[in-house]
Each structure stands twice: as structure tokens, then as C-alpha cells.
Design goal:
Elements: H1 3-14, H2 28-37, E1 44-48, H3 55-62, E2 66-71, H4 74-84, E3 92-95, E4 107-113, H5 122-135, E5 136-147, E6 154-155, E7 158-159, H6 165-172, E8 176-187, E9 193-203
Parallel strand pairs: 1-2, 1-4, 2-3, 4-5
Antiparallel strand pairs: 5-9, 6-7, 8-9
Helix pairs in contact: 1-4
Length: 206
């Protein structure tokens, strides 16, 4: 078990769903950007680092049928499964590190809120992007949300790499074109604020 896996399993074993800074009761920006990326309810969507996020609940309620959630922590995914109930059987739950995972299929939408910014090592970011490129279909869309340049320098006791759309574009490379970017002020459960940026890219090709 990697140090990253140990860290996140411990977080979700010792804290409640709403006791972490990234908790959102309603993931409105993520949901709006996924709708904008692909409104087809048969679109294959993967949420990277989804953990216990309520995005999968919102997507199911919205009518999306081909969903996958990937996270390092089995504990985090178990929280989401129990919350969703019977509908959890329709979701592909993947316990894996996005830097070492070997995708077995492709997706129309790749969504990541607050996972990529934990990759402070350039080699880890390159490994993540390699998996992303193999998993996103031509014409598919990539949504990555990170702390903005004026956002926090740490999260959950770990350093982060803050980004804007330009730095993300440089990480993804010329095969991906920037479609839109949005800013979000996230309110934590204890009423502090965090500056996030969301960037949406389209994989070139048809």
C-alpha cells in the first residue's frame, strides 16, 4: 500500500463525510461543466479522485447511466456506495492510483476535482497525463479543477501544486484544446473560503 493510499484511507476512516475541507453538498460547478461537455446520458464518465463526493449522486439523478469513480481510498468509495444504496451497483467503482492505473476502456468525459493538484512531482503529473491520454476518447472532454494560483498551498496537511488554465494546458499538451475555464470560491464546512479554478479541454480528433 502506497503512502498516498495510507493517507487517504486514514482520512476517510477517521473523519465524517462533511468533516473534510473539500466537502460539497451540491457539486454545482462540476455538474454544470459535465452537462456542457456531454449532455448525452449514455456518455461514459469517470470521476478521478471522486472519493465520497456527491457528484456521482447528482449524475445518477440527472440520468447519466455509464459512470465510474476512481479513488485511492476504498474507505472513501465505501462511504459513497453506502450513501447511494442500490443504485451503487450501476457504478464502476475503481480503487486505484491515477498515476499507476491501467485503463481498460475509454471515456467521453474525464472529471477531476481536487486530485491533480496533489501531484507536486513532475513525474507523477506526467504519469497521470499518460493515463488520461489513453483513457479519453478522441473528441472526449477533460474537466480538471484545482486550487487556483491564489488558492491554498496545502490541503489535508499535504502540499499542492496550484494551477490555472494555461499551466494545465501545458501539462496536457497540444492534443487537448481549452474550451472554457471557470472560477469558484469554495466554502468549506467551517466557513473558510478556497479559490478554485475549473478548466475544460476537448481532445482533438473525431
Amino acid at each position: 500500500m502506497s503512502d498516498r493510499t495510507t493517507h487517504w484511507d486514514n482520512v476517510y476512516a477517521t473523519k465524517g463525510e462533511a468533516e473534510v475541507s473539500w466537502y460539497q453538498d451540491s457539486p454545482a460547478t462540476s455538474l454544470a461543466m459535465i452537462r456542457a461537455a456531454n449532455s448525452d446520458h449514455d456518455a461514459a464518465i469517470i470521476d478521478i479522485g471522486g472519493g465520497a463526493s456527491r457528484l456521482v449522486d447528482a449524475l445518477l439523478q440527472d440520468g447519466y447511466r455509464r459512470l465510474a469513480v476512481l479513488d485511492l481510498s476504498a474507505n472513501a468509495l465505501d462511504v459513497a456506495k453506502k450513501r447511494i444504496g442500490k443504485a451503487a451497483t450501476t457504478v464502476d467503482w475503481i480503487v486505484a492510483d491515477a498515476t499507476t492505473w491501467q485503463p481498460t476502456r475509454t471515456y467521453d468525459v474525464w472529471h477531476d476535482r481536487a486530485a491533480f493538484h496533489f501531484l507536486t512531482d513532475p513525474d507523477d503529473r506526467a504519469a497521470y497525463v499518460e493515463r488520461l491520454r489513453s483513457a479519453v476518447s478522441p473528441g472526449g472532454q477533460v474537466i480538471i479543477a484545482t486550487f487556483a494560483p491564489d488558492g491554498p498551498e496545502k490541503c489535508s496537511g499535504l502540499p499542492v501544486q496550484r494551477h490555472d488554465s494555461a499551466s494545465l494546458a501545458a501539462e496536457l499538451g497540444p492534443a487537448f484544446e481549452l474550451v472554457e475555464t471557470r472560477s469558484e470560491t469554495h466554502h468549506t464546512p467551517w466557513d473558510s473560503t478556497q479559490a478554485f479554478q475549473f478548466s475544460r479541454f476537448r481532445r482533438r480528433g473525431s
